[in-house]
Amino acid sequence: MDDPREFLTTETEGWVPYQALATLSDDDLGRPVEGAHGWSGRDLMAHLVFWQEVAVGLARDLAAGDSSPTAEGVSAEWDKRGDAWNDQILDEWRALPLSVVRARFGSAPLDLRNALADAPEARWWGNEEHRQTLIEETVEHYADHPSELAAILAAAAS
């Protein structure tokens, strides 16, 4: 990806399929699905939004300055714990009321757009490390989970 507008378009288009999760009933969102590694729709929402919120934090940090304590902290935590951290994140999100999960799922994409609009483009796109973090936490991450989404939506339709 060579252009920030291309990134914004690709990010938006990549998120569109996941918006179908918001249409599922509470029961459907809560049902673990074998074809989704045992995740429920709620789990997939939580997983994606947590990492979207990392991108939001990065962009908000960059609106204030050239560095991102958010990205630095997340990188250190990931290096230390990896997928065990993902498991903890899911446990924490499972403890939240579903209404909160739905609200954050609904607001995170706009929060990201607004945060990027507030940050100087040179800080988030002009810096290779920040650009790569944004791509990883959004576009590349969305591309990692279409099979889970398909299984969850299929289970809800049956």
In brief, what are we looking at here?
This protein has helices at residues 4-15, 26-30, 41-64, 69-81, 83-94, 98-118, 121-124, 128-143, 146-157. By secondary structure, it is mainly α.
Mean pLDDT, all residues: 95
Low-confidence stretches: none
CATH class: Mainly Alpha
End-to-end separation: 38 Å
Helix content: over 70%
- Biggest pleated-sheet summary: none
CATH homologous superfamily?
A: dinb family like domain
Number of strands: 0
Radius of gyration, whole Å: 16 Å
Quickly count the domains.
1
Can you name the CATH architecture?
A: Up-down Bundle
Count up the helices: 9
| Beta-strand content bin | under 5%
Give the topology string: H per helix, E per strand: HHHHHHHHH
CATH fold node name: Four Helix Bundle (Hemerythrin (Met), subunit A)
Q: What oligomerization state is this entry in?
A: single chain
Shape: globular
Keywords:
Four Helix Bundle (Hemerythrin (Met), subunit A); 158 residues; 9 helices; mainly alpha
In terms of topology, how is this protein built?
Blueprint: H1 4-15, H2 26-30, H3 41-64, H4 69-81, H5 83-94, H6 98-118, H7 121-124, H8 128-143, H9 146-157
What does this entry look like structurally?
The relative contact order is 0.21. This protein has one domain: dinb family like domain (Four Helix Bundle (Hemerythrin (Met), subunit A)). The N and C termini lie far apart (38 Å). The protein has helices spanning 4-15, 26-30, 41-64, 69-81, 83-94, 98-118, 121-124, 128-143, 146-157. By secondary structure, the protein is mostly helical. Helices cover 75% and strands 0% of the residues.
